[in-house]
Design a protein that fits this description.
Largest sheet: 6 strands, antiparallel
Strand content: 15-25%
Strand order of the largest sheet: 4-1-3-2-5-6
Order of helices and strands: HEHHEEHEHHHHEEH
CATH class: Alpha Beta
Radius of gyration: 22 Å
CATH topology: Alpha-Beta Plaits
Number of helices: 9
Number of domains: 1
Number of strands: 6
Helix content: 40-55%
CATH architecture: 2-Layer Sandwich
Bound molecules: guanosine-5'-triphosphate, magnesium ion
Oligomer: single chain
Shape: globular
Length: about 260
Amino acid sequence: MKFNELDKKMRIYETASDAFVLPEIYIVVRIDGRNFTRLTKEQHDFEKPFDERFKNYMQETVIHLMNTGLNIVYGYTQSDEISLLFHINEASFGRKHRKINSVLAGEASACFSLLLGSIGVFDCRICELPNKILVADYFRWRNEDAHRNALSAHCYWQLRKTGLSAVKATERISKLSTAEKNELLFSYGINFNELPAWQKRGIGIYWKEVSKEGFNPKTQTTVTVKKRQLYVEEELPMKDEYNSFILDLIKRSEEA
Ligand SMILES: Nc1nc2c(ncn2[C@@H]2O[C@H](COP(=O)(O)OP(=O)(O)OP(=O)(O)O)[C@@H](O)[C@H]2O)c(=O)[nH]1
Ligand SMILES: [Mg+2]
């Protein structure tokens, strides 16, 4: 068989399941650490429930992903996960699922591993969202998930500190309402409302246009240039305000 014939024959098997995201559908990817319960608690000794250094690695990984040449409007991270919102017109890799998922999982794993100094692996999945309202709800969902998990995680580790086993602590927390979890923390002198916002709501990263002064050696004059720069928001709003924040980012990205 000639190579051309072999190439044509085999290519079908490689591309048969090459699904892509239709135009005008918003792409949000969620990248999540694989087995990070083990990584954070057995392989490394990160502070529990939240560790500043771990948070910085996640943040640096988001910044790396937003600088890989894809047009990403917004990056969000909480716990061991990262969500990225693509610009509505982003067409890289023909919007193919397999290519987007594998490239982003690879980029995130490589960046995080270098920061950590050992292997840390991420998976990646695509959410296809047919309108902006759903995009805002997607981010609200992850933001509220962060809030709920932070409250439970603080309770869990507080109970563990007092000598309760993992099973007993989990069982105790499963029976508590949100108000009771707040009270439990309060009884140990912790006011949940006063804990750092990044622990409760995650961190948002987006592009801001800034004016910078530069020197033009040709004309020997000072010039002002506009540059896009990533901005890290550690005090994200919540609930309806967060929906508005996301909708505003989308609006600005589509006007630009
Ligand atoms: N110690 C510590 N652990 C963290 C921190 N941030 C996230 N984690 C842990 O990361 C894990 C994330 O949970 P999951 O993504 O649900 O579970 P996983 O073990 O990664 O499993 P898969 O995602 O299914 O592979 C939890 O165990 C969190 O406690 C941190 O700042 N400190
Ligand atoms: Mg994980």
